[in-house]
Write a structure and sequence with these properties.
By secondary structure, the protein is an alpha/beta fold. It is 56% helix and 20% strand. It has 9 helices and 9 strands. A hairpin with a 4-residue loop joins strand 6 and strand 7. Helix 1 packs across helix 2 and helix 4 packs across helix 7. The longest helix is centred in the middle third of the chain and has 37 residues.
């Protein structure tokens, strides 16, 4: 009956509880014991090595993932609330890119030749690409938060400008298409086509055109279209939205 010694000096986790839960999920015969901060795992059966690799992969990639992402997030220049939001988003991103098979295969080769597994050491030296992916997930989540803040600041500024400007056009129609393009038509039926409709570009253009009434036809097919939402926030009562 092969046994392995599992240790972690960096993460304050209950290794016995983690391995007990993962082994129970597989329904394999096993025994666990702890001594001097180390967990000793004995797996019974002919497939013990593959079982231990599968269980350890889930402990590394799922159970410890939160702690690693939390450490990465804590280094971001964000408020506590934004860090919590970024961590949740990073977890979703990381899970969406999860691939346990190569991790299990690497653990089979590793655990076949040794009976000792230091979790943080294995992550740091043998799963560098996974740590890099998790770091990128955190950076993407943080960048999304900062981008939303910039957009909110821009919308607030444009809303103030919109309220101060005198109307130049009686009515302006905006049609937002499913492919991301949009069409602007004024009250004299002059039509302008835009292929790439960024929030900053289109909303700034609309503010400069200063329509008294703005009619938006949202044909994007999305329940929440960021461009439509931005227009509604900037123009308030001047804008009518049709989906």
């Amino acid at each position: 009956m092969p046994s392995w010694c599992i240790v972690s000096t960096e993460y304050d986790v209950d290794l016995r509880a983690l391995y007990a839960r993962r082994l129970a999920q597989l329904g394999v015969n096993h025994s666990l014991s702890c001594k001097n901060g180390s967990l000793f795992v004995t797996v019974r059966g002919s497939n013990a090595l593959n079982t231990m690799a599968a269980v350890s992969a889930k402990v590394l990639c799922r159970d410890l993932q939160y702690f690693v992402l939390a450490a990465f997030t804590d280094r971001m220049p964000l408020s506590l609330y934004d860090k919590q939001t970024a961590l949740t988003s990073a977890l979703h991103l990381a899970r969406a890119h999860e691939d346990l098979l190569p991790v299990e295969q690497g653990l089979v080769a590793f655990l076949e030749n040794t009976r000792d597994l230091c979790l943080e050491g294995y992550l740091r030296f043998r799963l560098k690409s996974l740590l890099t992916l998790w770091q990128l997930c955190v950076e993407q989540a943080a960048a999304d938060i900062l981008l939303k803040k910039d957009i909110n600041d821009l919308i607030a500024t444009l809303n103030a400008c919109c309220n101060q400007r005198e109307s130049k056009i009686s009515e302006l129609q905006v049609c937002i298409h499913a492919d991301g393009s949009c069409t602007l038509t004024d009250d004299s039926l002059i039509r302008i086509e835009y292929v790439d409709c960024s929030i900053e570009g289109i909303v700034t253009l609309l503010v400069n055109m200063a329509p008294e009434h703005l009619i938006v036809y949202d044909l994007s097919g999305r329940d929440e279209n960021s461009l439509t939402q931005a227009i509604a926030r900037v123009f308030g009562g001047r804008a009518r939205i049709y989906r």
